[in-house]
Amino acid sequence: MKIEIEENQFIEFDERARLFFYGPNQKVAHELVRSLKRFANKKSLNDLEEVVYGENGIEIYRNEQRLNAKNIDFHFLQDNFSLYKEVSFDKNSLMTDFLSVLTENVAVTQELEAIKNHLLKIELLFNDEFRQVSNNILSNLTALSFDDLLKNHLFLSYAAENHDFPLEMMDANEFVDEYLALLSKKLEHQPKESWIILVNPESFLTSERLQYLLTGLSVLTEKSGLLKTLIISQKALGLTYCREDIPSTIILMDESCQMPDFNSFRKSIENHYPTSLKLKDDVLIENFYEIVSNIGSKSRVAGKSYQNMLLLKVLNEILGFETPEFSNNFDELSELERLYLNS
Questions:
Q1: What's the pTM?
Q2: CB within 8 A of 333, min separation 6: which ones?
Q3: Separation between Cα atoms, residue 66 and residue 62, nearest integer Å
Q4: pLDDT, tens digit, 9 for 90 and up, residues 230-243
Q5: Fewer CB in 10 Å around end: N or C, the chain?
């Protein structure tokens, strides 16, 4: 897959159901998010935007086939408000999509018809009263439509701890269950390829709720076959990662670098490691994600274990990045490891 971030400049990667975009290059991360948002806008570029992206507009390719934004639904989660907006009665929100389906609900339709009949009875009562003062004035009560009901009579609140709270008062972490349920309903009633794009999710979700959200999205992906999840983060996320996450991880630098499958990943590290690599697979995966946001960074690295410093230097060398200055006053370091870090 290729995503254009500026005219004829693309981020290229192998497509997977879930992708992590990490790395210290904030400029590239910003350009990626900017392109995705503008592509999701589904409108023609103006003259100034054409200067950035070219006359052909933003181009995204899958297997050399250019994608059409009209065939994809995009959902951006980047702060507390963006998650709240999806579960509130807001234009184009998941909640609005969910409520609109109720127009097909037989019970709701029957109740609205009953209200219409009651309004007619009230109208007749009004007119009986009007006859006492005029033979010319009549009352006309407008029927209550489904759209009127939602627009003028529906107010959503959040019930918790025996209290009802306005939705806007709630923290984003409270909405994860509702978000997954509403997304599931939309995929069920409106089956369409959908991209969930999480931008710096650690800024508005706890690690536990983020893990829960990603697990739920994975379940929906398997169930529907329509869902793609892109996580773009400047910081390493405290998640539980597995072997399959390694080839789903892309380091954003001037040129993006996607990790290979886990076996190739481990073998490459073993071939460059200064000593025998004794880390178990799960520990290697955990250590990798502890330093993933430092890969390619030129800033001094401190506060890392000696194993992580070694791993970071190895990965920088494999990927062709400069190695930053380390703080390596660790008794655990062998002489060979110390010499390697200082080389």
A1: 0.88
A2: 306, 341
A3: 6
A4: 999 988 899 999 99
A5: C
